[in-house]
Amino acid sequence: MSKKAVLLINLGSPDSTSVPDVRRYLAEFLGDERVIDVPFARKVIIPGIVLRTRPKQTAEAYKAVWTEEGSPLVVTSIQQQKKLQALTELPIELAMRYGNPSIPSILESLVKDGVEHIFLVPLYPHYAMSSYETVVVRVMEVAKQIALHLRIDTLQPFYNDPDYIDILADSMRPYVEAPFDQLLFSYHGIPERQVKKSDPSHAHCLCTTDCCNIANPAHATCYRHQCLTMTRLVVEKLGLSNDQWSVSFQSRLLNDPWLRPFTDETLKEMPSQGVKRLRVVCPSFITDCLETLEEIAVEGKEIFLANGGTDYELIPCLNENPAWIEYLKNRVDLWNETGSVSHS
Q1: Is 333:88 a contact under the CB 8 Å cutoff?
Q2: Beta bridge partners of 119
Q3: Do 240 and 310 fall into the same domain?
Q4: Which of 37, 127, 295, 336 has its CA 20 to 30 A from that of 153?
């Protein structure tokens, strides 16, 4: 039998909070054609404007969340790797799509150790070209360069996996058992253009106002549909009424149309609509990172309180939640025993 291994991949972080390291990281991240999919923006605006001004600002944001061990996302991802490794005899490796440890370095190490069959686990619940897709494509590109014989199976998006929904809802339940006015699901934003590009038919996604609720094969790669589906399933599991929750999208860049409503605008408007006690969750992420710890926990709270809110709390990502680690272990075991890469 061929030697097997598991490869977890998360987004990544700069090596440090220094401006040069942050600039290098942003250049790799924003230079990805699946993140910035407009060639002019990627080749002219990003290097000519964004990389001249944003690294210093972003470095300050990273300093606000950096730990003694390093980047929260990387540190927590390493702990996830170690805790999963303790539950299985298969080698568990970790790489970052951007930054270190890099995908090429980890794949080269696995091949050197004689691994021939990999279970690739993108640490994203949803499909999006700028997250899940770019991880899979990059791994396949590198594998072709270093080991044509390498077999790679990929865990499918698990946004609607009943087991995962149970874990996510259970992690949120303590935060909604105390009195609150509304629960905001704040998802990572992407341009509307990318939603349409991910629609194989180019005739369904965002073509009608109710497209996400009309069954269509395009939903297999539709980020917006998957976010809304996850929200509905979690809300049902928590037993919330329709007036107790809402959805928004955060972290837009450039001036293209992005998925709405925007999180910052929503936080500003909520207090005037009677929402004084707010809980926020960011289910696009498995691991707390700059977007959750700084943009939502700090900047978002400032916006909400400055506009009349009184009680604001961010619900942590799953991070090292034992139930999440057990979920990964079960997926690894199923793949190892049967070759299955999907919960359905």
Answers
A1: yes
A2: 6, 153
A3: yes
A4: 37
Nearest to 313 by CA among 138, 126, 179: 179
Query: Could you give the CA distance from residue 22 to residue 62 in angstroms, rounded to a whole number?
Result: 9
- Separation in Å, CA 117 to CA 7, 165, 205, 302, 313: 10, 29, 35, 48, 43
Kind of pairing between the strands at 151-154 and 115-122:
parallel
What is the spatial distance between Cα 301 and Cα 313, in angstroms, rounded to a whole number? Answer: 8
Cβ(247)–Cβ(152) below 8 Å: no
d(CA 256, CA 258): 6
Q: What is the maximal distance between C-alpha atoms in the chain?
A: 63
The per-residue pLDDT string of the chain (344 residues; one tens digit each, 9 = 90 and over) reads 689 999 999 999 999 999 999 999 999 999 999 999 999 999 999 999 999 999 999 999 999 999 999 999 999 999 999 999 999 999 999 999 999 999 999 999 999 999 999 999 999 999 999 999 999 999 999 999 998 899 999 999 999 999 999 999 999 999 999 999 999 999 999 999 999 999 999 999 999 999 999 999 999 999 999 999 999 999 999 999 999 999 999 988 877 899 999 999 999 999 999 999 999 999 999 999 999 999 999 999 999 999 999 999 999 999 999 999 999 999 999 999 999 998 75
Please check whether residues 134 and 230 belong to one and the same domain.
no
Residue 126's closest CA among 94, 160, 169? 160
Kindly report the CATH number assigned to the domain that includes residue 136.
Answer: 3.40.50.1400
Which alpha helices (H) appear in 289-321, and where do they start and end? 290, 301-306
Could you tell me which of 246, 267, 232 has the C-alpha nearest to residue 183?
A: 246
Overall domain count for the chain: 2
